[in-house]
Specification:
Thioredoxin-like_sf, five-stranded mixed β-sheet, 4 helices, (2Fe-2S) ferredoxin domain-containing protein, alpha+beta
Amino acid sequence: MAKLKTVEELKKIRQAAIDQLDLRSTAESEDKVIVRVGMATCGIASGARTTMNAIMDEIAKQGITNVSVTQTGCMGYCAQEPVVEVVSKGMPSVIYGKVDETRGREIVNEHIKNGRLLQNAIINKSFENLE
């Protein structure tokens, strides 16, 4: 990392860190979308950390503010790792399997931003979240 030369550079780094923490906030509200990335041993070994970073990066790039990205343990779909669950009001809770970096960004752009499920990647769907 290069040496900081001004207070403004330090402020930019601080704000970027705060923005990343906000994405990982667990505070829930009615319109907040919750994204859970399976980060058990099998998930991490399959690349879940890269997937989670790609999702958070794409959310930040798109300027989406109503999303909380968290990690969770084993979801029971080890053969489908990395696994990502998306929970949002008015849509079924969806678990996507084999989510690499590209698919993670696609989830942000299609499911979270535009409300379209990625049918070819769904491994489980629950309609409990619909009202």
